[in-house]
Amino acid sequence: MEPTKNLTELARELWREMAEMRNSLRQYVHVKIKENNWDISMELVEILGLIYKRSGLNQQEIADIIVKDKSSMTYLIDNLVKKGLAERTEDQRDRRNKLIYITEKGKLLMEELTPWVTEIYEKATRELLTDDILNALSVARKMNENLKQ
């Protein structure tokens, strides 16, 4: 019989599971991208999905939401713009700021991507209750809060 784990050991296990879940998601997305011959990476799918739902965010807002540093965000958004999937527009309130909008081409690609993105989240949450996810979110948020203090 395995000895009872203390809070620190459980926290380490939770972090490993979350890291493994992220890696599994990345692998799944990578396979789907290859199968469909889409010229896009996991990081670009993540940003495109965000601006598909919330077009008009600035680069820092996107970086904060998807937890990337601003310098790598510049590179990723440059790639979306080069592919014609997004565009930068000057913010009328602050001309130093650029707002990122999804293009029609980007919307069409997201309409192709959305069904299988939904499929993976449905697969991952199979046999879970809404309360399970809400509790997990609450724990993860609290742990993140603690680390930021």
UniProtKB/TrEMBL annotation:
This is Transcriptional regulator, MarR family. One of its GO terms (molecular function) is DNA binding. InterPro entries: HTH_MarR-typ, MarR/SlyA-like, WH-like_DNA-bd_sf, WH_DNA-bd_sf. Pfam families: MarR (PF01047). One of its GO terms (biological process) is response to stress. Keywords: DNA-binding, Transcription, Transcription regulation. Residues 7-145 form the HTH marR-type domain. Signal peptide: none annotated.
